[in-house]
Structure formats: structure tokens, C-alpha cells
Amino acid sequence: MLAGTLQCGTMAEGDGHRPDEQMPLHEPAMVCQVLRLLEVQPGDAVLDLTVGTAGHALALAGAVGPEGLVVGIDADALAVAGQRLEREAPCPFELYPARFSVARKVAERAGVSGFAAVLADLGVGTHQLMDPSRGFSFDSDAPLDMRYDTSAGPSAREVVNTASEEELADIFYRFGEERYSRQIAARICRERPLETAAELAELVKRVVARRTPRRRTWRIHPATRVMMALRIYVNREFEELEALLEALPDLLERGGRAGIITYHSLEARRVKHTWRRQKRQGLMEELPDSPWMPTDEEVERNPRVRSAQLRVARRP
Ligand SMILES: C[S@@+](CC[C@H](N)C(=O)[O-])C[C@H]1O[C@@H](n2cnc3c(N)ncnc32)[C@H](O)[C@@H]1O
Predict the structure, then answer these.
(1) Is 217 in the same domain as 241?
(2) How much distance in Å is there from the Cα of 52 to the middle of ligand 1?
(3) Which residue has a Cα nearest atom 11 of ligand 1?
(4) Which residues, at least 6 apart from 240, have a Cβ–Cβ distance to it below 8 Å?
(5) Which end of the chain is less enclosed by CB atoms within 10 A, N or C?
(6) What's residue 296's pLDDT?
(7) Which atom of ligand 1 approaches the CA of 98 most closely?
(8) Is pLDDT above 90 for 138?
(9) What φ, ψ does residue 267 adopt, rounded to 5°?
(10) Domain check: are 241 and 206 in the same one?
(11) How far is the CA of 155 from the centre of ligand 1 (A)?
């Protein structure tokens, strides 16, 4: 549901928590490729579906210039993005606390019948990962929450402490492709209640260590897949992505381009398959060279983008 709007140049009020610019800003991924491949031009109206702390939104604002318009949405708080855009954007902007699944309504409210470009930079941002109170990171002693919109749906803590063993195993397998999903679910059910991300991560580490007694170190934290699965589940990320993919042809003007940055194969696959089907239906055409990866230099500077893929399609 639309919870309100933040109109051109006004500050966020009551759109969530932490209007605090001391928190780390998210470094936007693949900015040059995004601007070039979305062919953003001065005067364009563009839609950023994942505003975060406005890294991409500011780059888009610079490209559309004073005659353009940036409309942004995010399920999480928009205050920092609002402050940055107000200070630095050369163009009008409108921010809406909303989810992908209501993007059509947002476009209607903004009075835009078709955007020249739409961007979605999926998943969790550094501004959320690094905020210990959100329970996204392994060492967080805060309650395990993991919701982008903390007013909606059950938190990860509620899921971990109330779902059945079968449901938990299914979540870890379907959304994280976790190899030890059943063993981890069984251990959670024996040891719960669990309160924090750190407790959960430690439990997963113990289960995995028991199964792999010779391993001393891991390339990634052994709880990475379980944490990702819970995050995807509580934020309904795949349902939201599917709703977004279905809405894109309506959000774009003819010839308009959409860019989606994915960070793991489960979401990349959904984008690829939907665009393949939509090509047959004459709704969207993925560009021939898509997807694009970040440059080595960008990965070195910002290792978080190492698994990023930018897919771009146009509305014929
Ligand atoms: C990777 S961050 C984007 C960072 C942003 N591009 C920047 O440069 O600061 C992803 C953002 O998408 C938001 N998000 C994730 N799923 C969403 C959804 N279904 N609807 C709206 N926002 C969503 C998250 O809250 C997060 O702020």
C-alpha cells in the first residue's frame, strides 16, 4: 500500500526510522553501465525502484538534468535518500515508501504514463547490512528482524521461532539452496527460541562444522545461505520481483529501457526466464549482450558487487 509521498524537494516525515545520515551510505553498483545502457537522456522521467540511500537516484538525476524527473520508491525508510536528493539533485524528484508490487499505483500518483527508464538494484543495501539494529549481519546482537519494511509481516525472529521444522527446511532449501537445510531446521527446533542473528549464525556454523569435520575455514560464512533464505522469505522477494517483472511493460514508454541488477542466480534466473517469455509475447526484449558484469576495477574497489549482473531489456 502507498503509505505517503515525499514530493519534490521536501523532507521525509514519518516514513520510517533512522533519518540519520551518520549511517554508512550504500555504494551504487555499475553506475556507468546503468546510465549508458538505459540510455538516460536530459529531460527523461525515470523510475528508481530501489532508492536505498540514493546512489543510483543521484546519478540518474544528474543524467536527466533540470528538465527531467526522478521518481523513487523503497520499502525501507527514505529519509536519507530524501536529504541527499534535496541537497544534490539538479531535477525535481518524488519519493514513495512503497513496494515493487504497487509500482503501477506509484506511477499513477506521480502522473507519469510511461518512464523512459526504470532501474531495480535488488536485495539488501550496505546501509541495511551495516545497521546492527536490523539483524541482517552475522554478528548482530540485535533481534533478528531482516524486514525492509519493519511494519509489514513477520520478522525473521518470528519465523525462526514459530515455523515447523519442515517449513524451515523448505525455506532454507528453496530460497538459499542450503545443502544442510534439514539438519539446520532440526537443530533450530531443538534449541529455540533464538533471538539474534549472531545466535542463529553460530547455530548454523555448529551444524555445518559437524557435517564437514575436516573443514577449518570457509570461503563464505557457513550461515550465508540460511540468512539469505530468511531475508528472501520475510521480504517476499521473489513474489515482489515477479510482480515487478509483470508491471514493467506498463511502467515503460515505448522504446523505454529497464535495468535489473541481480546478486544471485535464483533472482537472475527469474528475470531471464520472464524476459524470454515476454519476448515471445511482444512485451519486452532483452538486449543481445545482456547481462553485463562489473569491471574488475569496480569489484576490487567494492567487493560487494562481485556477483552483480545487470540485465537490460527494452519495451518494443
Ligand atoms: C541494493 S539496495 C539499493 C541501493 C541503491 N541503489 C543505492 O544506490 O543506494 C536495495 C534496496 O531495495 C529495497 N527493496 C528491496 N525489495 C524491495 C521491494 N520489493 N520494494 C521496494 N523496495 C525494495 C531495499 O529496502 C533496499 O533499500
Answers:
(1) no
(2) 5
(3) 50
(4) 99, 100, 101
(5) N
(6) 96
(7) 21
(8) no
(9) -80, -35
(10) no
(11) 18
Closest CA to 286 of 257, 256, 250, 312: 312
Specify whether the CB–CB gap between 299 and 305 falls below 8 A. Answer: yes
Which domain range does residue 287 map to? 31-128+237-314
104 and 227 both lie in a single domain: no
194: CATH: 1.10.150.170
207 CA → ligand 1 middle, Å: 32
Q: Count up the domains in the chain and report the number.
A: 2
Residue 186 lies in a domain: yes
- Asked if 165 and 196 sit in the same domain, the reply is yes
Residue 131 near ligand 1, beta carbon < 6 Å: no
Higher pLDDT, 16 or 42: 42
Atom of ligand 1 nearest to the CA of 55: 8
Identify whether 77 is part of a domain. Answer: yes
Q: Which of 234, 263, 284 is the last residue of a domain?
A: 234
**Average model confidence (pLDDT) across the chain:** 90
Residue 157 CB–ligand 1 contact under 6 Å: no
pLDDT (tens digit per residue) in 279-306:
999 999 999 999 999 999 999 999 999 9
Q: Give start and end residues of each alpha helix (H) in 164-285.
A: 165-176, 181-191, 197-211, 224-234, 237-251, 265-280
Last residue of a domain, one of 209, 234, 259: 234
CB-based contacts of 219, cutoff 8 Å, min separation 6? none
As given in the structure block, the three cell numbers for residue 149 are 519494511
Residue 276 predicted with pLDDT over 50: yes
Instruction: Give the global pTM.
Output: 0.91
Provide mean pLDDT across the span 207-231.
Answer: 82
The per-residue pLDDT for 132 is 80
pLDDT at 210: 80
> Under the phi-then-psi rule, with left for phi > 0, alpha for psi from -120 to 50, and beta for the rest, what region is 215?
beta
Look at residue 156 and tell me if it is in a domain.
yes
Nearest CA owner, ligand 1 atom 12: 50
Q: Are residues 182 and 209 located together in one domain of the fold? A: yes
Amino acid of residue 231? R
**Domain shared by 117 and 44, yes or no:** yes
